[in-house]
From TrEMBL:
SUPFAM superfamilies referenced in this protein's UniProt entry, alphabetically: MFS general substrate transporter
TM annotation in the entry: 47-65, 71-92, 135-154, 166-185, 231-252, 272-290, 322-342, 354-378, 390-410
Keyword Transmembrane part of the UniProt annotation: yes
Gene Ontology annotations for the cellular component aspect, listed alphabetically: plasma membrane
Natural source organism: Sipha flava
Key words, A-Z: Membrane, Transmembrane, Transmembrane helix
Alphabetized GO MF terms: vitamin transmembrane transporter activity
Protein name as it appears in the record: Thiamine transporter 1
UniProt family annotation: Belongs to the reduced folate carrier (RFC) transporter (TC 2.A.48) family.
Domain of life: Eukaryota
Amino acid sequence: MEKWLIQSIWIAVFGFLKEFRPEDPYITQYLSNPPMNFTDKEIMQEIFPVSTYTCLGLTVIIFLVTDYLRYKPIVVLNALSNFTVQIMLIFCRTKTEMKIMEVFYGNMIACEVAYYTYIYSKVDKKHYKIVSSHMKMACLLGRLVSALLAQVLIDYHVLTVQQLNYLTLVGAATSIIWAFGLPSIKSSLYFHQSPEHTYIRDNTDVNVSKSKTVCQRLWFDFITAFTNRYVLQWSIWWTLGTCFYYQFMSYAQSLWQEIYKNGTDLPVTDNGIVEAAYTIISTLGVYLIGIITVSSWWLVGILTLGQGILLLIMAHESLLSHAYVGYIIFGTFYHIMATVANCEVAKNIPADSYALVFGINTFFTLVLQTCLTVIVNSPVGFMLNIRTQFLVYGGSCLIIGFVYTIGAMCSTYNKMRGHSIFSISK
């Protein structure tokens, strides 16, 4: 087996372990029942938002430190943060302690940039596409296995929701051991460049001299990527779409709890199988979009409109089964569109800029998510109930979908006329 493939599999196994979190499909249920007993308002408006604020504050710092420390220490920090989160969920009970737990959770999410960019410093550029797929598939597989296992253990009364934390802790502990075994990195994209490192910009080879500072190289990469209008347009969608996806995923369980409390058709203990189904269908959707030829802009516009309609329906839903289906469809639509967006951006930037563009888009996603969280959840905002929040998210997705659908119409019209004013027909 080739060395690059071994390295890719090695880091992918870490991705599987970090995503092995059987407790996740039931986290809101765990926090709102004994022994935790937090109210829905405390969970939504005081506990969960802390991780969003933390992640925003750390994203840029973590990105730069990741490159400076050459990845592996931040991967280890990701695993340690995961472990700390589970320890606190098991042994801590106060609201303050849960807020501190969310700080570690936010740090864990911020550190994921090291996982997704680590492999680019270990393999040749010609393998970037396949190793990127390894990273994504490993995470999806980890979520799938943990969700299915959680559902089986709950259904057969082997473990309770509370006891799933111990199983998640085992996965977190194993990920720490595996992270320490990862091969070290000798060079990185900015702070520790290899002598032969060459940047490719606009199809022209440009050797970056050693006298240039890290800031100059970062600025050069930033300008090269985001002065490309096509890349900018896709990055805007990725930022907006991912913001609402993160918000949706953070509070979907709260909506399920609200529906369940008012009487419905299914037990809320089916969260695990729903998460598994969502993972399988999303993976299938991502695979199919890779082999089907379709207009990217029409796809994004229509599916985003579909997401908006789904959220508006879910905001008024009284049947848990329908809310579960909405969750699966919304998530699948997002992963299809995110895959298309990532591909379109990657095709139009140098390979060396992947990590930077990923980090910048993630940062602005978190800025928007933080603003949205403050507006809808915090005491300085409107403190909306969960159903009203979904109405806000749904209306926002409709606006985004409408704008991109109009853009697709303009692009199609201009192509038919033999030129493109809107410049998204690329």
